[in-house]
Design a protein that fits this description.
13% strand, alpha/beta, 503 residues, globular, 39% helix, nine-stranded mixed sheet, Rossmann fold
């Protein structure tokens, strides 16, 4: 569930008796003290002539550093890994609040490059924070993890061939076990939260503020549970209900995705002259159904790719997280290419479709899918019986035949080793600012409402209407954006929940 791109998002006990739920800062005599007391070596963020992210960070005045953390917090004298961070320093030093750590979601998404655009979204408030982008352990520029998968995602539509999907998921799990089995038990949200506290100490701070999108909301919930005294201000955008967090997090989002598809169909119908997908909502949806039927009869040739009935729903699902003209236009172009391929017309995919097909059908971004699954599977155990998934797909297909085989499909977590550490029981209350759109097809609005009830001292900014995943600085709603900026500036939550209307 990566908040800031159109890619998929998403979702036995470890011997940690010495680490209570709320982990204290390391004392001088603690085995963790070398990590908490380390001095960071800030360098240029540019790693080479083709490093676009590094150049953008450099232009924004950022510097980068590697933070050393233990692979296993129960054995701090053992193997270590590095966590890469970027920082744009506060300019309003007289009113400086402290560091604002970022997580853009995924899980498995790189956030080190997000500091410049968050700096811009914060406007005048930005100068009061050190804005810190973090690539969590095994993500991006941090110590890498790559299971050498033939795909960038573990979410692959089951279509009518469940046995094939189960075999594929089993193979993905085995590849990770063979190639990275020694680190998989430690690729978890709880360890990422522990890393965040080490980052806090290495920055020389008593507290941090935090802005987390999508999966980043769950990371924030876990951090606030484990280290409540270390939080200054917290914004969670695209809110996950922690009671529903699991490798099957996308299950039962079918209705929201169908509503998003319908909204997009209305948009495309109004632009039939440009895209040729149908002059009415029903006509556009009929075009989509025709593409899926054709792909079921036999794979569609789209450039160098073969697109069957498993992949078409994934393309649609991937394109339905951002409710704006650019994202809708990219999806319309992709569907137009698929329509032509279904008609037997030779077609080279537009850039957005080519990127999605490369992500789903090749190993170019194997590391992303590897880490995403490692985190989800390492946090919460998934059902082990393939029949659970088969029956669930069939039940879902009877109501939503297009998306249910994607959101309910079997994945590698069904064949993963059991988590070594018990899942986090998120605390009952914490004062944070929650943000969610009512039509969000990834982190559904029901999750935000549930977490608002779980954290009664929090406040919720609701963006009413759009099928939008990630709001602050992404959608462009002044009401929601100003609400986040006001809270991060003053530290005061709104007196009550706020509803913002989409223009």
């Amino acid at each position: 569930m990566k908040a800031l791109s159109t890619r998929l998002a998403l979702c036995g006990a470890l011997a940690l008796a010495a680490l209570p739920l709320t982990t204290p800062a390391a004392s001088a005599s603690s085995p963790l003290s070398p990590f908490y007391e380390q001095r960071l070596d800030w360098q240029s963020c540019v790693t080479g002539p083709d490093d676009t992210t590094g150049k953008e960070l450099e232009q924004a005045g950022a510097k980068c550093a590697d933070v050393t953390v233990p692979l296993d917090y129960a054995n701090p004298g053992g193997r270590t890994v590095t966590v890469a961070i970027s920082r744009i320093r506060a300019t309003d030093t007289a009113h400086r609040i402290g560091p604002l750590l970022l997580n853009g979601g995924g899980p498995g998404g790189s956030t080190i490059g997000d500091a410049p655009w968050i700096h811009g979204a914060l406007k005048e408030v930005a100068g009061r924070y050190d804005i810190v982008g973090v690539d969590p352990r095994f993500v991006g520029r941090s110590t890498p993890l790559d299971c050498k998968w033939p795909t960038g995602t573990s979410i692959w539509g089951a279509g009518t061939r469940f046995e094939r999907a189960a075999s594929f998921a089993r193979d993905l799990a085995e590849r990770c076990r063979r190639g990275a089995g020694d680190v998989l038990p430690y690729v978890t949200t709880r360890n990422t939260a522990r890393d965040m506290d080490v980052i806090r100490a290495a920055l020389g701070e008593r507290k941090i503020s935090y802005l987390g999108y999508s999966y980043g909301s769950y990371l924030g919930e876990v951090f606030a549970t484990m280290f409540p005294a270390r939080v200054e201000r917290m914004v969670l955008d695209g809110v996950i209900d922690p009671a529903r967090y699991s490798p099957r997090l996308l299950r039962q989002t079918e209705s929201e995705n169908r509503a998003a598809l319908t909204d997009w169909a209305d948009w495309a119908a109004a632009r039939h002259a440009a895209y040729g997908l149908g002059a009415s909502r029903d006509a556009v949806l009929k075009t989509v159904d025709g593409i899926q039927a054709a792909a079921t009869r036999g794979p569609l040739t789209v450039g160098a790719y073969q697109v069957d009935e498993r992949v078409v729903p994934v393309v649609l699902f991937t394109g339905l997280s951002q409710d704006n003209d650019q994202a809708y236009g990219e999806l319309a172009l992709a569907v137009r290419d698929l329509k032509r391929a279904a008609q037997g017309v030779p077609v080279e995919p537009v850039a957005s479709l080519a990127e999605t097909l490369r992500f789903v059908l090749t190993g170019d971004e194997s590391a992303y899918g590897s880490v995403q699954s490692a985190i989800l599977c390492g946090d919460v155990a998934a059902p082990r019986d393939p029949e659970v998934y088969r029956r669930d797909v069939e039940r879902g297909r009877s109501v939503e035949p297009l998306f249910a085989p994607v959101t309910r499909n079997i994945g590698p977590c069904a064949f993963w080793d059991a988590p070594r550490e018990a899942p986090t029981t998120v605390r009952d209350d914490f004062p944070a600012l929650l943000v969610n759109a009512t039509g969000d097809p990834r982190t559904t609005y029901a999750g935000a409402l549930a977490q608002r009830r779980n954290w009664p001292s929090s406040r919720l900014i609701t963006l009413a209407g759009p099928a939008q995943h990630a709001v602050f600085g992404v959608y462009g709603n002044s009401c929601a954006d100003e609400g986040v900026r006001a809270y991060l500036s003053s530290g005061r939550l709104p007196a009550g929940d706020v509803t913002c209307r989409a223009s």
